[in-house]
Amino acid sequence: MLNIDLHCHSHISDGVLPPAGVVARAAANGVDVFALTDHDDVAGLGEAQAAADDAGITFIPGVEISVTWSGQTVHIVGLRIDPLNPLLSAGLGDIRVGRTARAQRMADDLDKAGIAGAFEGARAYAANKQIIGRVTPGNPGYVEHEWTTLVNAVSWIRASGGMAVLAHPGRYAFNARQLHILLDTFRALGGEGIEVVTGSHHPSEYGKFADLARAFGFKASCGADFHAPGEGIDIGRLPALPHYCKPVWLDWPEIEQLQAKN
Predict the structure, then answer these.
(1) Of 39, 35, 153, whose CA–CA distance to 88 is shortest?
(2) pTM of the model
(3) Is 65:78 a contact under the CB 8 Å cutoff?
(4) What is the span of the domain harbouring residue 222?
(5) How many domains are contained in the chain?
(6) How many CA atoms lie within 13 Å of 219's alpha carbon, on the beta-carbon side?
(7) Which is nearest to 63 in space by CA: 183, 200, 157?
(8) For the chain, how many helices (H) and strands (E)?
(9) CATH code, 138
(10) pLDDT bracket for residue 101 (50, 70, 90)
(11) pLDDT tens column, 180-236
(12) Which residues have CB under 8 Å from 199's CB, separation 6+?
């Protein structure tokens, strides 16, 4: 059975390791198929592809797009994307500009609270100058922010030839009705999969989301959502998808070729 991990982050977004370092860790953990899915940025895909080629790993170019839906932040993973697609590139660029503008507003609010130089300090600390984190509601520096729409995220991914997958649905604070509406809407827009086995889900939730995938006609994906060694589940350490799931990679030519070799 192939070891497949389709959700990982490098220091291009909010991970710790460089793209080649993430690939090296995947190789050391016996991963056969790997996707790098940095937040709103594809700048690490070239380095990761080269490292995967050297390591003999099948590389899947990916991205994780930040979306605002029903007042909450939702993440959509794009798999097998073309990172050079102009629609995708322009959309991701707009999101990154919005991140930087939000960071400046956060710093201004912190400055009013007596914490000076927050923006400059955050930029110096961040490995990627456009990915700066946030504080939680109710604290100084918290700024409401609207990401892109679900329509945009799915359309950008599809325009680039990719597959849109709803990331870690168990993480969102939706009730059952809201989640079902999200899944219905996502499917109607062209979404094709949801993450079932992920580092963001408790093992007791795997069956729930496998059942939802089957009920809504989605394919199932898996990924550690790796950010740093020692944090959460490591790359390639996830259990297999439930046997009745239809995996997102079912008809991918690169997977069929790999299976034929093994």
Answers:
(1) 153
(2) 0.86
(3) yes
(4) 4-261
(5) 1
(6) 17
(7) 157
(8) 8, 7
(9) 3.20.20.140
(10) low
(11) 999 999 999 999 999 999 999 999 999 999 999 999 999 999 999 999 999 999 999
(12) 7, 223, 224, 225, 226, 232, 233, 238
